[in-house]
What we know:
alpha+beta
Amino acid sequence: PVTDVMNLCNEIGRLTGRKPNKMVVGTDLAVTLLNHSDIKNRIQQSQLGIPTLDLVARIMGLMTIVEARSTRNIAVQNEDSSVTTMSFIADGKSFLLVYANPSSTPTRNQPSGGYYLQWSRMHPQVPTDMGMMVNSLRLPEVEHGDWFEVVDAAQPVIVGPDYGVFASSVIG
Length: 172
């Protein structure tokens, strides 16, 4: 996998002039990378320590590798509420390799594969620049009954499709 990722980095770098610096991997792929013999051998030979995604990133020449671990409840609404069916949001066997602007502020002069744009001051009652509004309500008739509503105005935007690559089902 190390040579494959390095080859993808070279291809993106050839097309754009920028080498990818970040990788987001699914949970299954993270386990596979950490236990792959090629990566274990490289770590063992260099005496870097126990395999972590940070070490794998260093071996692949990336700034960071992030494991996509966000979950959601996929149970059918209004069915047996005692059953919670949780699932990872991202496909566990996929990855995104991308050049991301190292600065946290989008700029016209700095390319990036994408940005997560969040609107600030979206409501007159929200004086902060966080871009979200949180309402809460206490439900006294329900034990530990608190209700929260979060209103968020954000949009992921692909601004440089040539600066990254997404691959799915990369492991069996």
